[in-house]
Amino acid sequence: MKLWTRFKTAHGRIGFGLLQGEHILEHRGDLYDQPIATGATIARDAVDLLCPCEPSKIVALWNNFHALGAKLGKAAPSHPLFLIKPATSLNGPDTVIRRPPSYAGKIVFEGELGVVIGKRASHVSEEAARDYILGYTLVNDVTAAEIIEQDGNFAQWTRAKGFDTFGCLGPVIAQDFDWREAEVVTRLDGTERQRYPLADMIFNPWQLVARLSQDMTLMPGDVIAVGTSIGVGSMKEGALVEVSIDGLGTLANRMGG
């Protein structure tokens, strides 16, 4: 399994490469089009890892797990239910989630799998969809929960989920990852709060790419956050949230003020 990551050196240079244990094998060119190894090897602890991709948009799913739908009394949708998190919400691993100055209410974590698009996808069939996936990453779909129903005339999903730093991604993009046997585990200050199987998805990654590409063009680097299941909860200032999937590592972010 290949693990791609982006990094920033102490001198501010940004690069990308394959994470191999405690080292990164640097590459050049286009991550989405046959990147070439430079031959340089960089120590993992000598750089800061960044979001492994730079999406033009994060497409975030709602009600995409049977267990959560059953708990909420929601029927399985006939088409993916989604919102868009703007690119300005992007936040990398080991960084701070900032509370919006305009909002004093509850902020919640949602540990999820992210599907990273590898090439321009428009009106893709389900049979071809997996060829449009570069790989998979971890997502914390942070939400200002009390904003969603603040206005009874219009549910504020995008506003609640679109604040700066609310789109946590990383630390790697895993190629050749088999999600079908994997579980998402989310810990809050070291205590397990979520553990759920990805096989419980209503729409799996290939179906999501196919269905969503009928609605909008998906661009290289775009991320589909496949939705979450039971166990989401609020984060207090200073709390550490860690989202993990075996093979993808851990996405850790701390809640700031």
Short description:
The protein has 257 residues and is mostly beta strands. It has helices at residues 66-72, 157-161, 205-215, and strands spanning 3-8, 14-20, 23-30, 33-43, 48-50, 57-62, 81-86, 90-91, 95-97, 107-109, 111-117, 133-141, 143-144, 167-174, 183-188, 191-197, 223-225, 233-234, 240-245, 249-255.
Task: Tell me about this structure.
The chain is mainly β. The protein contains 3 helices and 20 strands. Strands 1, 2, 3, 4, 5, 6, 7, 8, 11, 12, 14 and 17 form a 12-stranded mixed sheet that branches. Strands 9-20-19-15-16 form a 5-stranded mixed sheet, with no helix packed on it. The chain has a 3-stranded antiparallel sheet with strand order 13-10-18. It is globular, with a radius of gyration of 18 Å. The mean pLDDT is 97. Keywords: Isomerase, Metal-binding. This is 2-hydroxyhepta-2,4-diene-1,7-dioate isomerase. Residues 4-52 form the Rv2993c-like N-terminal domain. It holds the Pfam family FAA_hydrolase.
Distinctive features:
single chain; about 260 residues; mainly beta; SH3 type barrels; Fumarylacetoacetate hydrolase, domain 2; 5-stranded mixed β-sheet; about 10% helix; metal ion binding
Topology diagram in text:
Blueprint: E1 3-8, E2 14-20, E3 23-30, E4 33-43, E5 48-50, E6 57-62, H1 66-72, E7 81-86, E8 90-91, E9 95-97, E10 107-109, E11 111-117, E12 133-141, E13 143-144, H2 157-161, E14 167-174, E15 183-188, E16 191-197, H3 205-215, E17 223-225, E18 233-234, E19 240-245, E20 249-255
Parallel strand pairs: 6-17, 8-14, 9-20
Antiparallel strand pairs: 1-2, 1-5, 1-14, 2-3, 3-4, 6-7, 10-13, 10-18, 11-12, 11-17, 12-14, 15-16, 15-19, 19-20
